[in-house]
What does this fold into?
Amino acid sequence: MDVFLGLFTGVVQEGFVYGIMALGIYVTYQVLNFPDLSVEGTFPLGSCVAGVMIAAGLNPWLACLAAFVCGAAAGGITGLLHVKLHITDLLSGILVMTALWSVNLAVTSGSAVMPFYNQPTVYTTGPAALIPDSQNSLRAVVVSFVFCLIVKVLLDLYLKTKSGLLLRAAGNNPRYVVSLGKDPGNMKILGLMLGNGLAALSGCILCQREESADIYSGTGMIVLGLAAVIVGINIFNGLKFLRSTTAVVLGAVLYRGVLVAALQMGLPTNYMKLLMAALLTVVLVAYQTMPAGRRKKHVS
Amino acid sequence: MSAEQKNQTGGSLLELRHIDKTFNSGSVSELSLFKDFNLSVARGRFVCIIGSNGSGKTTLLNLLCGGETPDAGQILLGGRDITKEPEHVRSRRIGRVFQNPAFGTCPQLTILENLSLADRKGKSYGLSRGVSGKKLDEYRSKLELLKLGLENHLDLPVANLSGGQRQALALLICTMTPIDLLILDEHTAALDPSSSENVMELTRSFVQEKHLTALMVTHNLRFALAYGDRLLMMHRGKTVLDVCDGEKEALHVRDLTERFNEISIEDGNDV
Ligand SMILES: Nc1ncnc2c1ncn2[C@@H]1O[C@H](COP(=O)(O)OP(=O)(O)OP(=O)(O)O)[C@@H](O)[C@H]1O
Ligand SMILES: [Mg+2]
It folds into this structure.
């Protein structure tokens, strides 16, 4: 029973942290209609920035801010490549993702793994210190949940501002944004900055739980994020009272849960990414959202 | 022999000077559409533009709005050269309704959200609340003008509206803030007859009340005669008929179809 509880808290804790990244993908993929691959680079970028800063004894909360800013900068580059240099959306993401591999290595001074054991993290300092060390895993769940909740609420609020409405319009009907006298390209750049900032923040928080940054941690993040968005929106949005953003976070937790369950049932870890891809394939086929859903999302 | 020059009193609001436009220049499919094209429209004019498919009506509007750039020539709006201005900058002074009802609004957002966005046209879109409660009554009374009952469905996503409702809304949206020029490209073409009539009547009343200058492309010859005070017929990038006021009122649909046939015969088609 204890084993099960441990697994459950692990899934929920990681699900919430990945949920932050999924919210970023929600912004780029669902709101902006932009299949952004740079997330595979910005997620570990957040980890590496956090790793270096925390290992150097800097404040872990400051590291979160720095990770967000770095991710946003990288996302901004994806946007500039696409909007100003007219490179296709997919290629812009691939270029930035590839370039970030070297950037991440440069950040960690060449090491693929960057441990910072026993340094203060967001899981042990600040408000988190209110929960005693003995309640370690509960504390991790609470911290992750609160982080995710804050991001979700802020995102909800943003999407209701004038700028947020314009961002949604830019994804839904760029022509309309033009007719309002604004450049939809700038909104795209802004959305990519937001989305990748969140991905980096997610990477930053996740590595603090593991007390080690890993430059490989980005692999599969697109698949995970997309699965969360598509599963979340399709399964949970049927419940009218749930916002899309909530649905996306629940999607991330659910997807994570299925993966962990498969590992528990004896799937070798090496097959994890295969399973992730297979699961997303099933999801895509089941909902057939790829062509239609990307182009139009009707609110009924 | 432009009719406008004969009747012109005030300065012209819109002027196209010596416009050249060639598509796919240098390839086998090269198409030289406009060659030294000139047009001037006085402030307050409501110009209807007719012409066969491919005669360059939409391209003309795209050149005005900035979707296409001319190879040579100048475009002036209110005396200012806008030839090099990007499309989104020009649209601060130009309102446009497209043939496709999906283009003029944001389907995913509600009617209220669409109106709130349009209300900010030309200003900044910051972090203040997207929709403000203070403006609700103003929006409702504006929607009442459309006589479609939309004022009771402010929170309905525009995706749920019919084509006619969307075009009416698009018309309202693009005339909400002060504009110099209203551009209508077959904006009733996708609508059934009664919605078309309704949208045309709305167009007339908006143009009149706000003293707008308008360019309307239509394939409906009856509309072209019933509305506006100047009529242009285009053919292969040239103006082949340009009449206004009394001369326009004297025209009948029969005259226009005859003119179409003449052109067609000139082109070597037996009609
Ligand atoms: N972007 C483009 N590239 C190449 N050719 C174009 C382009 N836009 C328009 N054309 C060509 O220019 C000509 C005029 O097209 P335009 O759309 O302006 O005609 P139109 O008068 O609006 O016709 P319709 O009544 O069918 O709407 C057509 O022959 C068209 O094929
Ligand atoms: Mg046309």
Observations:
- Confidence is low (pLDDT under 50) at residues 290-300 of chain A.
- The longest helix of chain A spans residues 2-31.
- Residues 55 and 116 of chain A are 5 Å apart (CA to CA).
